[in-house]
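Q: Given only this backbone (303 positions), what sequence would you predict?
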C-alpha cells in the first residue's frame, strides 16, 4: 500500500454510519514491518511533508490545522514530535490546551482556540482543542458549572448545540482557506494500562503520570461514547476525523504523517509565479551580482 493511501483507510467519510468498534486500536493495516522499515517509511513521508510545507509557506494562501484528541497516554505528544520533526519550526505553531484559566472562562468556549488558529502559510497543531468542550466537560458537569454561562442557556440540548457551533466554525474556517485534519488516537484500555504502568515503573517517566488520569480511565466507556458521537456529528469532507489505531506507536505516526502529506498534496500547492517584469529584474540583479564574483561563478556554475 502506498503511504498516501494509508490514512484514507482511517478517514471517517460516512460519519452517520461510524462506530468506534469498527476500528481496532491494535490494527496496523497488515503492515507487519520491522521497526527499521517503519522508521524509513516515516522518514520518507516526513521528507515529503517538509517539501510541501516549504511550498505552503512560500505560497502563503492556505493554512493547515491538525487537531489531536485522545485518552491519556495514547501518544499525542510522541506523534506530534516525530511527525513534525522535519518541518521548519518557523512554519509551524503548536498549542497544548489544558484546563482553562479564569481569563479563558470569561469568554465563549471557542475563544482561546480561535485566537490560536494558524496564519496562512503555517501548519498549526492543537494538542487537545475545543473538542474537550464536548468530551471532558460532558463527562464532568462540575466543569460546565464553572463556565459562567447564563443558566437559561444551559439546557438538555447543550451538546447538540455545541456540535452545531463546532460544525459552523469549521465550515467557516474551510471557506477561509484553512485545511483541517482531526486525529483521534484510538488506544485500547489494555494498552493504556500498560503505558501507565511504564510511567510508574520508569523513574524517567514518573513526571508523565498523573493521578487524575486514573480517574478519567475509570470513565472509559463514557468517554468512548462521547468520542463516537463527536466523530459522527463533526466529521465532514472539509474537516474530516481520522480514527488512528494507537496501540502501536510506529503505526500511529505513519498514519498521521500519511494524512498530512495527502491533505497538503490535495491543496495543489505551488511556489508563487514570477511575473515577466520580475523575471527581467532578476536577470538584471543576476548580472550585477555576477560582476562581483570570480570568473567561473558568473555563468551560474558552482565554484
Ligand atoms: P498527557 O497525555 O501527556 O498526559 P495531556 O494533554 O493529557 O498530556 P495534561 O496536562 O495531563 O496534558 O492534561 C490536560 C488536561 O486539561 C486534560 O485532562 C484535559 O481534559 C484538560 N482540558 C483541556 N481542555 C479543557 C477544557 N476546555 N475544560 C476542562 N478541561 C480541559
Ligand atoms: Mg494527561
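A: Predicted residues:
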Amino acid at each position: 500500500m502506498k503511504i498516501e493511501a494509508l490514512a484514507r483507510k482511517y478517514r471517517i467519510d460516512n460519519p452517520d454510519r461510524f462506530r468506534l468498534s469498527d476500528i481496532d486500536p491494535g490494527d496496523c493495516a497488515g503492515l507487519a514491518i520491522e521497526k527499521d522499515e517503519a522508521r524509513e517509511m516515516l522518514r520518507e513521508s516526513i521528507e515529503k511533508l517538509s517539501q510541501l510545507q516549504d511550498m505552503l509557506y512560500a505560497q502563503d494562501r492556505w493554512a493547515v490545522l491538525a487537531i489531536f484528541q485522545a485518552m491519556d497516554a495514547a501518544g499525542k505528544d510522541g506523534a506530534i514530535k516525530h511527525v513534525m520533526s522535519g518541518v521548519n519550526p518557523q512554519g509551524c505553531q503548536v498549542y497544548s490546551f489544558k484546563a482553562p484559566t479564569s481569563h479563558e472562562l470569561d469568554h465563549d468556549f471557542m475563544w482561546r482556540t480561535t485566537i490560536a488558529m494558524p496564519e496562512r502559510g503555517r501548519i498549526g497543531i492543537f494538542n487537545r482543542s475545543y473538542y474537550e468542550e464536548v468530551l471532558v466537560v460532558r463527562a464532568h458537569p462540575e466543569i460546565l458549572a464553572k463556565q459562567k454561562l447564563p443558566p437559561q442557556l444551559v439546557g438538555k440540548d447543550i451538546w447538540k448545540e455545541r456540535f452545531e457551533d463546532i460544525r459552523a466554525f469549521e465550515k467557516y474556517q474551510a471557506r477561509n482557506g484553512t485545511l483541517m485534519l482531526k486525529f483521534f488516537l484510538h488506544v485500547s484500555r489494555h494498552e493504556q494500562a500498560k503505558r501507565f504502568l511504564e510511567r510508574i515503573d520508569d523513574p524517567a517517566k514518573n513526571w508523565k503520570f498523573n493521578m487524575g488520569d486514573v480517574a478519567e480511565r475509570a470513565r472509559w466507556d463514557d468517554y468512548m461514547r462521547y468520542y463516537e458521537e463527536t466523530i459522527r456529528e463533526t466529521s465532514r469532507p472539509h474537516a474530516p476525523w481520522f480514527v488512528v489505531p494507537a496501540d502501536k506507536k510506529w503505526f500511529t505516526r505513519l498514519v498521521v504523517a500519511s494524512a498530512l502529506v495527502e491533505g497538503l498534496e490535495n491543496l495543489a500547492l505551488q511556489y508563487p509565479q514570477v511575473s515577466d517584469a520580475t523575471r527581467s529584474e532578476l536577470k538584471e540583479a543576476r548580472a550585477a551580482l555576477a560582476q562581483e564574483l570570480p570568473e567561473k561563478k558568473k555563468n551560474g556554475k558552482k565554484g
